[in-house]
Transposase (Candidatus Methylomirabilis limnetica), 104 residues
Amino acid sequence: MKGIPQGRYTKEFREEAVKLGTEGNMTIPAATRRVSLPPSTLGNRLRTSKSGKLSEIGKSQKPLTGIEMELARTKQELVEVKMERDILKKSAAYFAKESLPGTR
């Protein structure tokens, strides 16, 4: 089984996630779902933000290239399209079953 790859996030994304987790009118689990982060990652970001070291995170990493960012967007879009496809398959099967004679 493959492990989950470590995410690299921009400074703006980290700041927005922390802002959503602290100032937003939602719980931490809801905020993590909204920004697609693991709860432990957002918790770590909130702790580093409280200590004032949020800007130091990621300084040792090289920035993402345009191709890497495009690849990440494409992968996310593929996941969404697959979910939509699966939902459509299930709904089509449900309505096809309902329209068969003698199944009501």
